[in-house]
Amino acid sequence: MAELLYRLGRFAAHHVRVVIAAWVAILAVAGVGYSVGAGTLSDSFSIPGTPTQEVTDQLAEVMPDLAGGTGTVVLTTSDDEPFTDEQIADLSEAFTEVTDVDGVEAVVDPFTTEAERDAQTAELEDGQQQIEDGRAQIEDGRAQIEAGQQQIDEARAELEAGQEQLDAAREQAEAAGLAEASAPQLNAQQEQIDAGLAELETQQAALDEQSAELEAGAEELEEQAAQAEDGAALLDLASGIQVVSDDGATAVATVSFTEDLLDVSQETKDGVIDTLTEEVGAIDGVEVDFGADIATETPQIVGPGEIAGLIVAAITLFVMLGTFIGAGLPLLTALIGVGIATLGALSFSSVVQMSSVTPVLGLMLGLAVGIDYALFIINRHRRQLKEGYAVDESVALANGTSGNAVVFAGSTVMIALLALNVTGIPFLGLMGTVAAGAVLIAVLVAITLTPALLSLVGMRILSRKERAVLEAEHPQAGAEGDHATSHIAPKREKPIKPIGTWAAVGRVLIGVAVLLVVAIPSLDLRINLPDGASAEPGTTSYESYQTISEEFGPGVNGPLLVVAELPEAISEDEAVATEVEIGETIAAVDDVEALAPVGLSDDGTVIAFQVIPTGGPTDESTEALVHELRGLSPLDDGTEIGVAGSASGNIDISEKLSDALPLYLGVVVGLSLIILILVFRSILVPLIATGGFVLSYYAALGGVVAIYQWGWLGGVFNVDNPGPVLNFLPTILVGVLFGLAMDYQLFLGSGMREAYAHGAPAKVAVAQGFRAGRSVVTAAAIIMISVFGGFIFAEDAMIRPIGFALAFGVLVDAFVVRMWIIPALMTLLGDAAWWLPKWLDKILPDVDVEGAALERKHPHVDPADGVSTGSTDTTPVEPVETDETK
């Protein structure tokens, strides 16, 4: 690889125009691709197979009207007075206009909804009064029937008594022999009694019929009463759901889309925003804000913070290189690289679902590593020029040596990022792939365009003072022009003194203790996607979220959709009672503020409820509520309970990411060990380097939790509403920080390894390698921190914590782990640091990262005397005391 890069560097140095033209052409192609294929970016995420997605898919089959996405529109009066009838009428017309937007299914008019609810309440109250009146009438009827029955019974008793008297009289007449004489009179009396009994039977039949009718009416009335009670119960369960505030000055309208929210086009959302902004703007005294589900604006790729970061990086480069040309070259190549990478990634945004974070992450990494990788090559080239190399010779050799290290370092970062695909989470894999592509382009630019530009600027890569020193000490250098110089005698530096044993112990203890303390907040890590509360204050999504929280409660910002799948189909007559039964079970769960049934499937097997939590969409109580609701399933009658909604979906995604993190961390740590064993041919160095990465990782997470979750220093970092950490940040941080940590370990550790391999004592080798690499690693880390830090103040709430995590992670890893703890540990280990089993040493390939073999193959010939020289270290070394010399 080193030889190939050497030839590539020499080709670039000899064909400057071709190389520059090629990269300009690639940039132009990326620009054309962007103009043709750029699509809409999203702030919503989904993962196939989550419980929320399964419920959503079920609804799409049985209740497609509920499967579409919804958006929130908040309306307020500018004078805080209730909406007037005229304003309400004008708003209703505005809602009608919105339904004409392509992709909009309907708009729920809050005033119509409240009017219907009031009408239902009034109707229910009237019905309950009528039921009470009916019950009173039935009781009166029962009393009348009872009185009539009593009269009939009394009359029947009198007739029966008369019958007994008549029978006794007939017996007496027969006994006296007067039967025939008294027969007419007795028969007449019998006829009267029979007629009376017949009349009583008729009256009894009529009374029984009246009683039956009355009881039937009573039964029907009780059925109506039961329905009214169920209706009252549903209204009571839904009493906490409002769409118009108590003071009548705020209303919430809901826009229903034909597609799932993830599939709703930006054109549709923009159409809703434009229509309502225009229509509401024409209504005097009414203001409108849009929830984050509609107002998903694509964040600016570059803002003031990012520009400030670049300025700091430029200053760092100028301080290190001492020339504007030297400082400008890494910035130029990095900007070209990220331009190609970002435009190229966005060219596919119309084909694949891409989040707004994806191209920004690629921009962050591409810019940071692009500057650093160019710096490594330029720094090596400048050093060689001072040692007497010709420009083209130096360019080729710098590309073969430092360029080889750049390729290796970039490959490490790319592998770590591409490994995000093993998590099985599509949007995370896409982020890793796009970021890896940005790093790949940064590497390619560094090893092709950078050599070409170095050849183009020639000796001007050195400062005037440095060139003047060359001319003064070696006048013959100028005779050969810009492409040859004479050797400058290196300055004699102070002797290298290894770290003392007790100093090394102190460094390790202090460094590890500090990192462990900083990492403590990571134990309280909670992850989720940011809600409207995390938006920039003053934006429409922020105002919408805050207004809803204040007027209707935080839970209205994140309603849940609870779906009950019944064991048997029910009829429409049974629906209300079933809804009440299931609704009361749901309402009994803690942290349920209110609920309302929103649909019954055509086959009568699925009921959907809207459930309002007491907490906001990212509150711990809402997360616990989702789990508890799912824990209800199945109910005693076999009903299955499922939960969906944006809040539920975000919780599921966060849990899926948490579950995938250990696997990914294990892959990265394992990869780290393998790579470092190959590079350093050691067992202990990879172990302590990987352990240092783990410390850096959790320290960075601790800083993120303290600031973005706990709210520490919130005023400094623009954190107005602390909340859960961005759910995919811990996973992204693993890949990026691992790659960068290995870069720093490589550039510091390889120098230590080289010094040890050339015979320096182990402790001295550590000091030599550290001195050789500290300046470039320091500059590279400062540049990384500056670039990443610029994103801390980005507009997008998802970008800010990523920028901080990467900047703080690099700060901790570079300056505390790589330049403080690791050298001390390696000093304490001594020769043991480089121990490797013989059997493993035989089978491991020789990975010449720094290109030492290339230097031997292409030795520098000093033009003054024709003697071949190599890159030597003339720094004096103090003798090191050992047990034998004491």
Describe the structure.
It is built from 25 helices and 14 strands. With 886 residues, it is of the alpha+beta class. Residues 476-490 and 865-886 have low confidence and may be disordered. Helix 6 (110-176) packs antiparallel against helix 7. The strands form five sheets. A four-stranded antiparallel β-sheet has the order 3-4-2-5, with helices on both faces. Strands 9-10-8-11 form a four-stranded antiparallel β-sheet, sandwiched between helices. The radius of gyration is 42 Å and the shape is elongated. Residues 160-187, 859-886 are annotated as: Disordered. Its main location: membrane.
CATH class wording of the largest domain: Mainly Alpha
Strand order of the largest sheet: 3-4-2-5
Helix vs. strand class: alpha+beta
Q: What is the number of E strands? A: 14
Q: How confident is the prediction overall: mean pLDDT?
A: 84
What name does CATH use for the topology of the largest domain? Multidrug efflux transporter AcrB transmembrane fold
Shape: elongated
* Gyration radius, rounded: 42 Å
Question: Beta fraction of the residues?
Answer: 5-15%
The appropriate CATH architecture of the largest domain is Up-down Bundle
The structural domain count equals 4
The CATH homologous superfamily of the largest domain is named Multidrug efflux transporter AcrB transmembrane domain
Largest sheet report: 4 strands, antiparallel
Count, helices: 25
First-residue to last-residue Cα separation:
46 Å
Helical content stands at 55-70%
- Unreliable parts: 476-490, 865-886
